[in-house]
Specification:
Structural class: alpha/beta
CATH topology of the largest domain: Dna Topoisomerase Vi A Subunit, Chain: A, domain 2
Number of strands: 15
Strand order of the largest sheet: 8-5-11-10-12-13
Radius of gyration: 34 Å
Shape: elongated
Number of helices: 21
CATH class of the largest domain: Alpha Beta
Number of domains: 3
Length: about 425
């Protein structure tokens, strides 16, 4: 520091005053305005008043110091060769830029950051664009960016490389630790409580949202997270995800699977986890080509009691990975799927997901306006109505309009006898 300006570090009040000047300049973007000295001690005010050539009483009465007046006074002292900003920078030992300049520099830095990402992974532009637009669900990523942008860049490179090599790209499933080991050499790299794991889940969530397959927001429960990962072929727990079925046969490497054969022969319900489904090469109905799917376990149990041998599947709510694996096998076997769920935003959205995936091989079963009117409950679903805005299947439009109008949920339990009669009628043919 120049010895001449050392006086401003030694005289009472000047460092405090200059810090206020700095913030005022940064805020306004120019030399102007005033700063308050009401919090200054008498000794500090006396020192500043002496420099400005004013009496202490006058300065105390004003209670402020104008930046322009202070700079003008510099020209009458031994510091005439300094502008106020030059003096502040030397005394405070820092480069001072306005908040507008700082913002411009930060924007340029951000621009370069995302240009580097697009240059390395141009095929990931959809994700880089999403993050750069700063939606509310990306705040935590921007916090990471401000903490250490270089570390974030490194993690994003690895995560997007992993996204490009997900097992679903080859229609396969893989345990998460083995996937992590294959991509990074560390089986815990993509653990869901680690930053790379969170970033990978976020990448999947954005991909789902952009493709209209998921509402905004990261998974809030373990079940939702497991479901998201399973959509991309990753399994955290291959025993947790299971599907219940009755009346189906399966084949594995040595032929018809004996457990499935025994279950079909004895009309027994199977709870089949992913771990066992991954050993299977084919699934088909024991009778015919029609398979009935319900989401409610009590409804499924009632159907099983009343209609022997009918090929029935219970998903136990939202589709998990096990459900998708089984349904994929049935579609490959040329089956027609009949799906019935609760007539509410979630159940209708599940039907739409099936239609999106399997098209005409899915029939929406008892999910029409008439069925809804028979099952209307007193549960208000006004806050969830928007979940049906993306429904596009012609089979569902009428019931969607009815639900949006009445805003009450319809439950599958009210249709159980109709569902049973439908299956019995189909078995007569």
């Amino acid at each position: 520091m120049n010895e001449r300006v050392q006086v401003f570090r030694e005289e009472p009040g000047f460092l405090k005053l200059f810090s206020l000047f700095k913030e005022k300049y940064r805020s306004l973007g120019r030399i102007g305005g005033t700063v308050s000295i009401k919090s200054f001690s008498n000794t500090e005010v006396d020192s500043i008043a002496g420099f400005l050539g004013q009496s202490v009483d006058v300065l105390l009465q004003k209670g402020t110091v104008a930046l322009v007046a202070f700079e003008k006074e510099l020209s009458q002292t031994g510091f005439a060769d300094y502008t106020l900003i030059q003096l502040l920078e030397e005394v405070l030992e820092e480069t001072i830029i306005t908040k507008l300049e700082e913002s411009s520099l930060e924007e340029e830095k951000e621009k370069i950051f995302f240009e580097d990402l697009r240059l390395t992974y141009p095929e990931g532009s959809w994700w880089w664009d999403w993050i750069q637009s700063k939606p509310s669900d990306s705040r935590w990523i921007w916090a990471l960016y401000r903490q250490n942008s270089e570390e974030l860049m490194e993690k994003l490179h690895v995560v997007f490389k992993a996204f490009q090599n997900l097992p679903c790209k080859n229609s396969k499933y893989e345990r998460l630790p083995l996937f992590s080991q294959r991509i990074t050499g560390n089986p815990h790299f993509f653990d869901t409580n680690q930053l790379p794991g969170r970033l990978l889940s976020y990448c999947m969530q954005v991909d789902q949202q952009l493709n209209g397959m998921r509402d905004s927001g990261m998974p809030k429960t373990t079940e939702e997270l497991n479901d998201l990962l399973s959509r991309y072929g990753l399994m955290r727990d291959d025993l947790w995800s299971f599907v219940s079925c009755r009346g189906l046969l399966a084949e594995w490497e040595t032929g018809v699977h004996p457990v499935w054969q025994a279950a079909a022969n004895t009309d027994t319900v199977l709870n089949v986890p992913i771990k066992e489904l991954l050993k299977i090469t084919r699934i088909w109905p024991n009778h015919g080509k029609k398979v009935w799917i319900v989401e409610n376990s009590s409804v499924c149990s009632t159907i099983v009691d009343e209609v022997a041998n009918a090929p029935v599947i219970c998903t136990h709510g939202q589709f998990r990975a096990a459900s998708w694996i089984m349904l994929d096998f049935l579609i490959e076997s040329g089956c027609q799927l009949f799906y019935s769920g609760d007539i509410d935003p979630e159940g209708i959205s599940m039907a739409q997901r099936l239609k999106d995936r399997y098209n005409d091989q899915v029939t929406c079963w008892r999910m029409d306006k008439a069925s809804y009117e028979k099952t209307i409950s007193d549960e208000d679903i006004s806050s969830r109505i928007t979940k049906m805005d993306s429904i596009s299947s012609a089979e569902l439009i009428d019931v969607v309009n009815a639900v949006k109008n009445i805003k009450m949920a319809g439950y599958q339990e009210g249709l159980v006898h109709d569902l049973i009669e439908d299956i019995k009628e189909a078995f007569k043919k």
